[in-house]
Amino acid sequence: MKRFSLPNRITGLFTRKEHHTLLGGQGEVEKKIVFSLAKSRFPSYAQLHYLPKYLNPRERLALRCLVGLIMIALVFVGIRFYERNVEILPDYGGELVEALIGQPQYINPVLAQTNDTDTDLTRLIYSGLLRFNEQQEIVPDLAEQFEISEDQKSYTLKLRSGLRWSDGEPLTSDDVLFTVETIQDTAVLSPLSPSLRGVTIERLDDLTVRFTLNEPFAPFLTTLTFGILPTHIWGDVLPSNLRLAEYNTRPVGSGPYMFDSLQKNRAGDIRTYTIVPNPYYFGGKPFIPKITFRIFPDFETAMEAAKSRKVDNVSFVPRNLKSELINERDVNFKALLLPQYTAVFFYQKNELLKDKSIREALARAVNKKEILSQALGGDGTIADGPIPQGFVGFHKDIKKYDFDTAAARKVLDDSGWAFLEGETVRKKGSRELRFTLTTVDQPEYVKTAELLKQYWEQIQVGVEVVIIEPSQFEREILRPKKYEALLYGELIGFDPDPFPFWHSSQSLGEGLNLASYFNKQADKLLEEARKINNADERSAKYVEFQNLLIDDLPAIFLYTPSYTYAIDEKVKGVVATRITVPADRFNGITNWYIKTRREWK
């Protein structure tokens, strides 16, 4: 009997034919009966049920494979359709546990400026008139709008209507007035006092206040990001008793979160501090309903807790401990760029280092890429000037002193600093080319100093590295400017204004002009720039200033470090890329989430 192929057998089962192959016997009769009774050519379920009996084993296997492939294709198409038509959205839920280092003392915006734990908690519990967003741009917070007068001396801010404190009490301009007057009260000793010196404030109505300055000051808006205190809570507290009040650890604020609870050990130290969403927050309900901060005395203890999964996030991970956490669990290390640069500052009153040719040779002998790799483990970016990328005035085409040891030697040769056979350092006459490099005893600085010593000894310059304990550094080195060359970092702050670091007036006393740099034209540009609110005009002044600074070479800019924030992989929505202070990592906290939900588009 002739064997039929699988397609022919299936076709024979599913279709009528005027002429079909003789099968003979009872099977042919049954087939004729089936075809005569069928109302359509497409088989019924009952007919399909008999299909396997109609096929031989090989054909049944082939059919099963075909059906399997069809099912897989349908599943794949279904998944693709689902993915294209359903979006994953943040949802309310979950709990975040973060490690903080150091005891909270003053969760109070008037006092919390020197303790990172205080500023972290203050940022979450209080709101300011203005705030920084994730891109470090000034945006409205409690104030919905502001106006600057034509003479740029008056700033008028209007509060949002319906604002309330976390206890439900109304928030008005009286609270703003009270906060500013508290900061300016000399009995309070607020770290914010210098930023509001000479500033007057007046209440125009329940929602409006006006600040008046003695002269234009472009960075003033960044000053208005401090948190506002509730006068109904603090109004009866004597200024001299402000630091003793219970509300410093159990605050009432207006931020996205509010105080919930704290736990102490037998010694009275706070072990955990829990916050929950503020139901009266004007900016919308955060997705994370509970954040618990576990307080640790040092980074080593915090890292042990992270490795054992007792905490999700770690507020800061020192570079020397980062590898420990990488090997133990899956976390995302968020590298947040700081508005800070590390540089070698040449004290301009030093007779040897006043010679620009020496400074140029030293600059050309430095391998910044190697320093960034070996001293920071790559956690940062190379710096060539005093204004970091992303700030007004960043100079992308700034003059660079590229690493070139041979060129560095030639600069010294041409300027009369000879290296004679049998000598260890260069000389000009009887004078040796030798100086001290002073820095603070921190791993990053110590390693950088070691590398600098190597680079400079390769061009026959004698360098003695002096390492000072952190507790002694400010008093014994910085204030009296007791150094020849100084390896140190300067934190710029919220605004890139270089005035505090490079204007000649800041060379005196405890000023931050660490090189004692003086250039009349540079002074003039800095004075003019800080009075200009227009970003483009101000930027042009800063670019011109930087051209002068880099040409004069009072310092070698090395790198901008990054701040490493360890974030558990379950936490999503953290988009910040740079910060000014550690608390800035919480900018955009209302957009963070742990849980998700799916919705059809």
Which percent band covers the strand fraction? 15-25%
- End-to-end Cα distance, whole Å, is 60 Å
Given the helix and strand composition, which structural class is it? alpha+beta
Instruction: Provide the residue-averaged pLDDT.
Output: 90
Helix share bin: 25-40%
Instruction: Supply the number of structural domains.
Output: 3
Shape by Cα distribution: globular
Architecture (CATH level 2) name of the largest domain: Roll
Radius of gyration: 35 Å
Number of helices: 19
The number of strands is 22
Low-confidence region ranges: 1-7, 9-24
CATH fold type of the largest domain: Dipeptide-binding Protein, domain 3
InterPro entries: Peptide/Ni-bd, SBP_5, SBP_5_dom
Protein name: Solute-binding protein family 5 domain-containing protein
Pfam family, one: SBP_bac_5
Keywords: Membrane, Signal, Transmembrane, Transmembrane helix, Transport
